[in-house]
Amino acid sequence: MSTQDRVPGTPLRFGYGTNGLADLRLDDALSLLADLGYDGVGLTLDHMHLDPLAPGLAARTRRVAHRLDELGLGVTVETGARYVLDPRRKHGPSLLNPDAHDRARRVDLLVRAVRIAADLGAHAVHCFSGIVPEDTDTDTAWKRLAESLTPVLDAAASAGIPLAVEPEPGHLLATLADFHHLRRALGDPEPLGLTLDIGHCQCLEPRSPADCVRDAAPWLRHVQIEDMRRGVHEHLPFGEGEIDFPPVLAALAATGYQGLTVVELPRHSHAGPHHAEHSLPFLRHAEQAAAATSPSPAPALQQTAPPHGALSAPEGSSS
């Protein structure tokens, strides 16, 4: 959705990520979310949920699209599966891998994700940069990232699906400033957008999560949300971290963002249905409180931001 199409103050649309429901069959997870009243789902392509590498992908995608339509669920396609490409290397290979063939495997996955997203009617495809490999200098890593994303952005442009890159603590592209570095390096291509993880803002950014939302608004294509503490990259259920959510949701509503805001609890699948059941009422209550929140900017965080990529407990939506 372009910024011109946004209507400030419209209700937010909440989803839940399937990477937090990994112990459920995909159809069961979708039915659960619809029954609980969610507006959509963040669908992580993985071996248990619409495997992007297994045979019969087109037919399986059609079935999922039909089911989403039946249930009235919107969808974002996410690509943070841990071992979908390599059973031995978490998130391997990445777009930064020294081996060109390995990078091409990740590019192929992202291009597949764009095609799947188009067939599902998704509003965005999420991705991230990856961790800088050992013995790779930063300039080389940025060059690999830009070159690797170019064919993905071409596919996204052809499909009319935004590619929403997520700043991930500990990765090459870790902050909003890093996103803008990539955007400028690529010449600000129209399909390139941003996934903003609210917890990551609390964890790493120098400004408050509400300020991050306002700063990111022109490029915002996907939002992930969970609780988190300053300087600790651990996705927490709502109420267990430090984030004041009504100002964040007030800022998000003020942007007119109409994509999904997806609960991101990838390490809580053992109790996924419980957390899905309790997360939506929390967010709706915070949204109601946000309606009475002053539109004045939230103050910047007073704590000093950790050094770039320096965290006490790396985890994350891509973990």
Task: Describe the protein's topology.
Blueprint: E1 13-17, H1 26-36, E2 40-44, H2 57-71, E3 74-78, H3 100-120, E4 125-127, H4 138-159, E5 163-165, H5 176-185, E6 192-197, H6 198-204, H7 209-216, E7 220-225, E8 227-229, E9 232-236, H8 245-255, E10 260-263, H9 272-291
Parallel strand pairs: 1-2, 1-10, 2-3, 4-5, 5-6, 6-7, 7-10
Antiparallel strand pairs: 8-9
Describe the structure.
The protein has 319 residues and is α/β, with parallel strands linked by helices. 39% of the residues lie in helices and 14% in strands. It has 9 helices and 10 strands. The strands form 2 sheets. It has an 8-stranded parallel beta sheet. The protein has a two-stranded antiparallel sheet with strand order 8-9. Helix 2 links the parallel strand 2 and strand 3. Helix 1 (26-36) runs parallel beside helix 2 (57-71), helix 1 runs parallel beside helix 9 (272-291) and helix 3 packs parallel to helix 4. The two termini are 28 Å apart. The model is unreliable at 296-310 and 312-319 (pLDDT under 50).
Rg from C-alpha positions?
A: 18 Å
Number of strands: 10
Overall pLDDT, averaged?
91
Question: Which structural class should the secondary elements be placed in?
Answer: alpha/beta
- Number of helical segments with 4 or more residues: 9
Taken as a percent bin, the fraction of beta residues is: 5-15%
Query: What is the approximate shape?
Result: globular
Would you list the SSEs in sequence order as H and E?
EHEHEHEHEHEHHEEEHEH
Runs with pLDDT <50, length 5+?
296-310, 312-319
Report on the biggest sheet: 8 strands, parallel
Adjacency order of strands in the biggest sheet: 3-2-1-10-7-6-5-4
